[in-house]
């Protein structure tokens, strides 16, 4: 491995640690940020449980099963948001002309944006997601799990975080082309995690197809959840007639391909970037 290959990861780790230490200088404020994120997402989860106080099932899914989807989505999104916030917050830098400074520094542009921020407080969202997964195992209709299920869950959360991170990268590429297009991309990032928090069975066929072939949200948690729960998907949802466990195991490949596409789109957007003249 060459020096640059070693240098960039080690530099990122040092920058991330420095950012966390900087925030820990105001320890109470930092802990309150974590608590705030946790509480805000907990309220959303409680609202979901209130819904199940009125109905026994949602599209044939019990409260515990939907809680599993919710928790997996939140944990994956928390990891992606922690590492991908530099891309999410790129639009203001493009608008102000600050991004132009990134282009003249002797480091890869992708790395600079990637390393520009690390949102450690997103652990609050991750913990809330973990709480939802735990609820799915201890709800009135608990879901029995085995050791292999925990392995599938772990890989699914990591895979989901890669998919959400790639979506943040695409959002950054979009910001380089359309300065005021952040709200549009939020539809796919924050809107995506909301969609992934519910069974794909509930949505129309065009949305199901889009969540499988365009923005692969189904690979974040739906296909892995089908495998974990031993559920049978409705007709037409599983691509090529593959089994849920096969799709769950193929999710890392899908995530890496999607990330590769996002990086290519990013590189082309950087090459065509013209600035705002600010």
Write the layout of secondary structure elements.
Blueprint: H1 3-24, H2 27-54, H3 63-88, H4 90-96, H5 99-103, H6 109-114, H7 123-138, H8 147-177, H9 182-196, H10 205-213, H11 222-229, H12 244-271
Helix pairs in contact: 2-7, 3-7, 3-8, 3-9, 8-9, 8-12, 11-12
Provide a count of the helices. Answer: 12
The number of domains: 1
Number of strands: 0
**First-residue to last-residue Cα separation:** 40 Å
Order of helices and strands: HHHHHHHHHHHH
Structural category? mainly alpha
Low-confidence stretches: 1-6
Overall outline: globular
Amount of helix = over 70%
Approximate strand percentage? under 5%
Output the radius of gyration.
20 Å
- Mean pLDDT, to the nearest integer, reads 89
Largest sheet: none
Structural description of this entry:
The chain has 278 residues and is an all-alpha fold. It has one domain. The protein is 72% helix and 0% strand. The protein contains 12 helices and no strands. α3 runs antiparallel to α7 (123-138), α3 (63-88) runs parallel beside α8 and α8 packs parallel to α12. The N and C termini lie far apart (40 Å).
């Amino acid at each position: 491995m060459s020096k640059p290959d070693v240098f960039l990861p080690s530099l990122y780790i040092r920058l991330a640690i420095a950012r966390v230490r900087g925030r820990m200088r105001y320890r109470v404020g930092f802990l309150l940020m974590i608590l705030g994120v946790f509480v805000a997402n907990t309220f959303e989860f409680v609202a979901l449980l209130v819904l199940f106080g009125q109905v026994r099932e949602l599209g044939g899914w019990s409260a515990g099963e939907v809680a599993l989807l919710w928790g997996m989505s939140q944990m994956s999104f928390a990891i992606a948001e922690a590492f991908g916030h530099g891309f999410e917050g790129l639009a203001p830098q493009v608008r102000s002309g600050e991004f132009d400074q990134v282009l003249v520094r002797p480091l890869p542009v992708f790395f600079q944006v990637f390393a520009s921020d690390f949102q450690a407080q997103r652990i609050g969202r991750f913990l809330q997601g973990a709480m939802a997964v735990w609820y799915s195992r201890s709800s009135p209709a608990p879901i029995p799990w085995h050791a292999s299920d925990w392995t599938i869950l772990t890989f699914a959360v990591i895979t989901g975080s890669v998919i959400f991170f790639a979506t943040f990268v695409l959002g950054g590429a979009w910001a380089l082309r359309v300065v005021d297009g952040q709200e549009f991309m939020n539809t796919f990032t924050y809107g995506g995690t909301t969609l992934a928090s519910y069974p794909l069975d509930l949505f129309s066929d065009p949305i199901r197809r889009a969540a499988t072939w365009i923005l692969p949200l189904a690979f974040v948690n739906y296909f892995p959840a089908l495998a974990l729960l031993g559920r049978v998907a409705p007709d037409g949802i599983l691509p090529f007639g593959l089994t849920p466990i096969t799709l769950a195991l193929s999710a890392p490949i899908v995530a890496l391909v999607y990330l590769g596409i996002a990086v290519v789109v990013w590189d082309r957007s950087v090459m065509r970037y013209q600035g705002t003249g600010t």
